[in-house]
């Protein structure tokens, strides 16, 4: 059965949909399901590679370069993540993503395709890395336990942030699951609940914590963590510009109340989801 859904025009701080009607055939839904399977498989593989890669100080990389070729190759892996990620968030990048699905489904599956591409970026960075083998610091005993505890907490903080920001959108399931059910994707308003009461960018903040709390401090990991932390500090500025364009004064009022990056933990609402 094909469902016909009419979406409302976007309004400030309200759910955003698409103003066209759409009917989905069995073929459309089958394609969406395949994209969903690919999305979540690659997503889980990327998370696993990041968790293990940082824990080992980037030692899991299968890259075979050494010397200056390794420096150049690893630098490319570092830079491709912020550069391509930013490109995909731009208007030209979004238009390009919409071409990566057949039967005119690119727009509806754009969030799923974005998650696939971002996951492939992470996966390539950690698996294709050429390790230098240079270890600067490897804590032991109680200090190692402290680092591991902080590492685990940082991951929990990231998971909480993803749920507060709408896990369907962040994981890529919004696109394929909507099409599979015969509906157009419906976006929620910008998040203001949960950890988004503590700071406006809890995902970037917790991602940065993960980069620095793993116990193995190698030259490789410190270089990658430094570069990606800079992106986590600067990148959201452009994201907020897009939010202001879309939501106007509603987002400006939120900016005035909540700090940008460093959290005020006394304002955290521990319930999951956007409230």
Structure characterization notes:
- Helices cover 60% and strands 2% of the residues.
- The N terminus is likely disordered.
- The protein contains 10 helices and 2 strands, in the order ααααβααααβαα.
- The protein has a single domain, classed as Four Helix Bundle (Hemerythrin (Met), subunit A) (Up-down Bundle), CATH 1.20.120.
- Helix 1 runs parallel beside helix 4, helix 2 runs parallel beside helix 9 and helix 5 packs antiparallel against helix 8.
- A two-stranded antiparallel sheet has the order 1-2.
- The two termini are 33 Å apart.
- It is mainly alpha-helical and 275 residues long.
- The radius of gyration is 20 Å and the shape is globular.
Binned, the helix content reads: 55-70%
Shape field: globular
Percent of residues in beta strands? under 5%
Radius of gyration: 20 Å
What is the count of β-strands?
2
> Distance N terminus to C terminus?
33 Å
The biggest sheet, with number of strands, parallel, antiparallel or mixed sense and barrel status, is: 2 strands, antiparallel
Q: How many independent structural domains? A: 1
CATH architecture, by name, is Up-down Bundle
Order of helices and strands: HHHHEHHHHEHH
Mean pLDDT: 88
Helix and strand arrangement:
Blueprint: H1 26-55, H2 67-89, H3 91-97, H4 110-127, E1 135-137, H5 141-164, H6 167-171, H7 173-180, H8 202-213, E2 217-218, H9 219-247, H10 249-257
Antiparallel strand pairs: 1-2
Helix pairs in contact: 1-4, 1-7, 2-3, 2-4, 2-9, 4-7, 5-8, 8-9
């Amino acid at each position: 059965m094909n469902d016909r859904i009419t979406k409302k025009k976007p309004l400030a701080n309200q759910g955003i949909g698409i103003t066209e009607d759409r009917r989905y055939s069995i073929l459309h839904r089958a394609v969406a399901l395949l994209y969903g399977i690919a999305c979540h498989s690659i997503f889980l593989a990327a998370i696993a590679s990041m968790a293990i890669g940082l824990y080992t100080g980037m030692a899991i990389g299968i890259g075979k370069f050494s010397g200056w070729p390794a420096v150049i190759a690893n630098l490319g892996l570092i830079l491709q993540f912020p550069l391509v990620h930013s490109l995909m968030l731009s208007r030209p990048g979004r238009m390009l993503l919409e071409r990566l699905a057949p039967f005119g489904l690119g727009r509806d599956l754009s969030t799923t395709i974005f998650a696939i591409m971002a996951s492939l970026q992470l996966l390539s960075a950690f698996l294709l890395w050429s390790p230098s083998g240079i270890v600067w610091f490897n804590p032991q005993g109680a200090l190692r336990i402290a680092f591991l505890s902080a590492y685990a907490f940082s991951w929990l903080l990231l998971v909480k942030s993803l749920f507060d920001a709408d896990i369907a959108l962040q994981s890529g399931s919004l696109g394929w699951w909507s099409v599979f059910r015969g509906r157009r994707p419906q976006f929620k308003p910008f998040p203001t609940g949960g950890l988004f009461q503590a700071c406006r960018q809890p995902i970037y903040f917790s991602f940065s914590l993960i980069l620095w709390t793993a116990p193995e401090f190698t030259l490789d990991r410190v270089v990658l963590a430094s570069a990606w932390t800079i992106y986590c500090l600067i990148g959201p500025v452009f994201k907020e510009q897009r939010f202001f364009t879309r939501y106007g004064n509603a987002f400006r009022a939120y900016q005035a109340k909540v700090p940008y990056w460093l959290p005020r933990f006394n304002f955290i609402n521990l319930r999951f989801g956007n409230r």
